[in-house]
């Protein structure tokens, strides 16, 4: 078992998990006009009473960078959905589960070509407080204006650029966002990163990861170290690898891997970026059984994410 810092590969038990560094993902969206949308029977603009009547009590409530509260719903990671609530009203929705339809035709598996025939061209900028923000989206993210909402479709390049998930944010909320990050979001981003990964694994017929508190601490320390020592890499300036860090923290494993990302607006964008990178995707879909996520705010990229995966010795 060894870590190759040049190729970014961990060699484990005659196998290998490729680890790469992801690039900074974009900031949010822009203009246009079309009708409203709903996901799993919930529509932006619904009251909190409507949401809880249809979906029940949330598994968890998380703060968001927008200032609204995410209500997190799933049934053992099936039917995963996040509903953003502000002043008793649903102002945002996200899901990577099956079972939703947008504009009667767009759902998981819809091709990018067909989606854009329905949605039109993606927006390329957004006005916020009289300042024009140019979007830096890649070809696997499509942001569209749909009525009073911005809709972001995430495309999976490993399924020929088909829709894999959707984020809907009320235009008023999106246009007032000026990238807020604070310590209260650390746990929220970590838990959402874990949940979103498991929701996709369950959708694809894989067993969900088990949360591991110890390796989450390892991951968080690495995210913080990248900020303090001004680098972005799996290997630290002192030469420690992911395997070294796990061993130092007393984690005994038969296989292990790591994903890192920096600059993404939130855990949703970090996850979707990882899934469009072969090495990261391999780790997220691997047979490792445990996952811990560590997030830290600050530094050149504002936010750093680390995921540590491992399978303990039996």
UniProtKB/TrEMBL annotation:
Residues 45-175 form the CAP-associated domain. Residues 197-309 form the SCP domain. CDD domains: CAP_bacterial. Pfam families: CAP, CAP_assoc_N. InterPro entries: CAP_assoc (IPR029410), CAP_dom (IPR014044), CAP_sf (IPR035940). PANTHER family: SCP DOMAIN-CONTAINING PROTEIN. This is Copper amine oxidase. It comes from Paenibacillus swuensis.
